[in-house]
Amino acid sequence: MLTLASKLKRDEGVKTGRAPGGPSDSSHRVSIRDRLLIKVAELEANLPSTCKASFPDENKLHHFQLAVSPDEGYYQSGKFQFEINVPEAYNMVPPKVKCQTRIWHPNIAETGEICLSLLREHSIDGTGWAPTRTLKDVVWGLNSLFTDLLNFDDPLNIDAAEHHLRDKEDFRNKVQDYIKHYAR
Description:
InterPro entries: Ub_conjugating_enzyme, UBC, UBQ-conjugating_AS, UBQ-conjugating_enzyme/RWD. GO terms for molecular function: ATP binding; NEDD8 conjugating enzyme activity. This protein is of the alpha+beta class. The protein contains 6 helices and 4 strands; from the N terminus they run H-H-H-E-E-E-E-H-H-H. 32% of the residues lie in helices and 11% in strands. A 4-stranded antiparallel sheet has the order 1-2-3-4, with helices on one face. The longest helix is centred in the C-terminal third of the chain and has 15 residues, at 168-182. The model is unreliable at 19-27 (pLDDT under 50).
């Protein structure tokens, strides 16, 4: 189980020459972000069944990847990779998320930008980021972009939304073509 708490204890013991659990060195500070990331293992345990998180560098829990494999809807059978970076100012600002998989989606640009209200630092409708939000909310929000949060009325990728309005079957075919070429 990967936890920041065990890593911090181990690192503190190495840096100070003390055994973990011994007297602490008050000059060693841990950021609020890192304190909030201590429970990353809980995130892994509470993921939707269609999601899998991975940590390319176990020493950087603030940078991880999320794979979403929808089991229903237009995007069923695709595997979409997201890169999530948690900034130092977290939880006052939202994580930075980018879709690494090319996709034909009204709320995800082909270049990877994502339109998801909880990722907005400032939101008119009050559904944007708030310090009470968690990484779990982000993961569940990204997962929902493929089902109930799929929004053709407020698109980021206007061409995809208009395509859906014009011809739903052709839209479905183009989505499947993108999955075949980019999301396997």
